[in-house]
Amino acid sequence: MGNLLKVLACSDLEHGPIIFLDFEHAQPTEAETTVWNQVSAVLEEAHGILAELQSYNGAGQEIREAIQNPGDLQLQEKAWNAVCPLVAKLKRFYEFSLRLENALRSLLEALTSPPYAPMQHLEREQALAKQFAEILHFTLSFDELKMTNPAIQNDFSYYRRTISRNRLNNQQLEAENEVNNEMANRMSLFYAEATPMLKTLSNATTKFVSENKTLPIEDTTDCLSTMACVCRVMLETPEYRCRFTNTDTVLFCMRVMVGVIILYDHVHPVGAFAKTSKIDMKGCIKVLKEQPSNSVEGLLNALRYTTRHLNDDSTSKQIRALLQ
């Protein structure tokens, strides 16, 4: 399929350029190599992080037994020994979010820098556009898994309560050396979010815009809206969609579309749902609703609950009804 981006037509400006974006292939050019290598080192860990989160079962039984038998030191120790390695795992997830944030920043710098327009960037930096999509795919995948696993919050709450109790009794636990109080506070804020990875990327994108005052905000939001348009068109156009050689690419494409919509909604002053938005929200939601419900319910929930402007007065009743 050659190039990542093939501009097939640009006649319908109202709906944006019709583009085929090949998520399945793309190798970095010499100009992209430095950023690509930096981001690639982060993305190499992403699959392992998702696998660990998917197999995260928690220490619910041990914690319940310890709470029900507060005088049984053996059960207290058993619960503590079960929770500590899990908290170490949660720390790794949190630390990975910080690396992901830095990777996103590097990609935003590359894909929005003057003198090129967003469309030109996507054509010139094809491999970086693919990495940007991979970060969004990971982010929504991670958050879907986290939202359906209450053990994460329960384990971490038990860990913090135990640390606090022992501190009151002037006892220092060995695990505190790995997750000290400051780290525990930061992790607590991270896991308190329904969608922690998405919140991290939204904050990072907003910060990128605010810190780059010489860069017009439209350069960033146009990059996001263009990617949303590309994904929507590929999903709703059979002749483009049939070019995917991997069945997982459809879900990948949907996650990327939802991810860029949410980032756009957090960064743009009036958001993604206003009439002036450059994203065809009706079209995007319609495309999602045409897929099997079990594969898109988490994505629809992300639009319902993690966007910033859905409930604004400027959002049409029709769009709100589509997300009911």
From TrEMBL:
Q: Which superkingdom is the protein from?
A: Eukaryota
Please list the GO terms describing molecular function: small GTPase binding
**Where, per UniProt, does this protein localize?**
Membrane
GO CC annotation terms, alphabetical: membrane
Membrane-related topology note: Lipid-anchor
Keyword annotations of the record: Lipoprotein, Membrane
Q: Which Pfam families match?
A: CYRIA-B_Rac1-bd (PF07159)
Q: Does the keyword section mention Mitochondrion?
A: no
Primary subcellular site in the record, as a coarse category: membrane
Q: Where is the CYRIA/CYRIB Rac1 binding domain?
A: 19-320
Q: Which InterPro entries match?
A: CYRI, CYRIA/CYRIB_Rac1-bd
Q: Name one GO biological process term.
A: regulation of actin filament polymerization
What family is this? Belongs to the CYRI family.
Kindly give the PANTHER family that the UniProt entry links to this protein: GH09096P
- Indicate what this protein is called per its UniProt record: CYFIP-related Rac1 interactor A-like
Record the organism: Salvelinus namaycush
Give the source lineage, highest ranks first: Eukaryota, Metazoa, Chordata, Craniata, Vertebrata
